[in-house]
Amino acid sequence: MLETAAWTPGLRLGCRAVGLGASVVGFLSKGAVRKPIMKLYRTTSGYVIEEHDRFYLPGKDRGPGESWELLTTRDDLHGHLLRQIQGGNGSEAARPALQDLQAPIGNQEVWAAGVTYYRSREARIQESKSAGGGDFYDRVYDAGRPELFFKATPHRVVGPNGKVAIRDDSSWSVPEPELALLVSPKARIIGYTIGNDMSSRSIEGENPLYLPQAKVYDRCCALGPCILVAPEPLPSSTEISLEIMRGGMSEFAAATTLASMKRDPLSLVEYLYRSNSFPSGCFLLTGTGIVPPDSFTLAPGDEIRIAITGIGTLINTVG
Question: Which domain CATH number covers 121?
Answer without folding.
Answer: 3.90.850.10
